[in-house]
Amino acid sequence: MKHCKMTTFAIATMAASALFAENLVFNITEDNKNYTPYSDILEGSLVLNVNATTPSTNEANPANVTFGGALTIVNGGTITNTSSPAVELNFNSGATRYYIQGATGGATINGDIVMNIASGSFNNQNVSDAITEALIGTAYGDAKNTVINGNVEIEIDNGYFAGNVFAGGGATLNGDTYLTINGGTFNAEDGVFGGNSWGGIIDGDTYVCITNGVFNTPVFAGNHRTGSGFTQNTIEGSTYLEINGGTFNSDVCGGGTNGQRIFIMLRTPGLVKGDANVLIRGGNIFGNISAAGGTVNGNASITFVGNAFDLNFSGVVAAKRSDVASNSNENVATTIGGTSTIYFGTEDEPFIGTFNGQVKNFDRMVIANGSSVTFTKQPIGVGEIIGNATFPTNEYSDMNEIIEEMDAYESEEAEAEFDYENVFWY
After folding, report:
1. Which of 256, 247, 178 is nearest to 220 (CA)?
2. Which of 15, 87, 154, 365 has the smallest C-beta neighbourhood within 10 Å, fewest atoms?
3. Non-local CB neighbours of 420 within 8 Å, separated by 6+ positions
4. What pLDDT score was predicted for residue 263?
5. What is the pLDDT of residues 361-394, one digit of tens each?
6. Cβ(377)–Cβ(358) under 8 Å?
7. Quick one: residue 127, left, alpha or beta (phi over 0 = left, psi -120 to 50 = alpha)?
């Protein structure tokens, strides 16, 4: 049973733990904002608390920001703590001209990296737009010699993110990533990612959980594509995207970005060796939804649950991102190695109401027992329909054939085909 993992580590609790010798705590304020990335050997926790008076809006004045460049927490060395976070950042207010990164420079982190962002302004620059990142869980750039033997857990409550967000990065992570977003504004050039860039490796799963926020950029549970100078971004496990609320003015995807071919140059799509999964309970989604993007070796699924009144969506929902993204930066088609399925409801949580989206190009569509779905658009390119729903009868002359096919799947044999075990949150 897999659930998205909420990261809550109270600052007061961690600050109090500084009484123990194994914890090293740095408190950064507007009056004391000099921090040198840690590069030594530590048997315990490294805790960095940032409490600045800089406005948390998009204040594009580097002279007033807390950090005039990037904020790197660890640059080399070894930190070991497997009983609590080995590295913890509590960013309560302030700004960075460029980005935050967890660990780089060949560092070894034996334990978890945890980042709690209460507020702030990130990628807050007005001089150059060469740096397009705002928050990176592991490392910026090709840093596979930086190894994290643990998880990366990021929780964002608020803030302004003018650059890309990666729960992973360019390092080697022997664990999972958990990106929980409860609020904030995201205006990145490329997107918000649960996975990697710069050839990074995640030997585990990725989880992106969103309850609120404004996203003027795509959201991906997987990887970004890579340039010709980098190896392929890889997630050895599966990806999970859960949306419970928020406003999305661009697309959402359970996988990653597709590749890009420019003449003979190929920007390689990210690789997910397991499955790609999306769960949607609600939200204002004004872009399109896709189960998979890039390369997914396993299955791909999207599940809608809850009350239709909680979901404002009338776009296209497709198995492959290449069926919904007409972006010249993603002109290499999505590939799915397994089966693509769209579910409406589960055994424990039905979907009730009118669905205004356009279902497109899935191997299967499954309407769970107890769900009551009325479609306003006829599904396109669906291989088989399992369960019962109401379709627009005045659009197609072959509607009776579709209804007969659906009735056939209402048998016990059809129910057996409904593989609840593969719906990731149950």
Report:
1. 256
2. 15
3. 346, 347, 426
4. 58
5. 999 999 999 999 999 999 999 999 999 999 987 5
6. yes
7. alpha
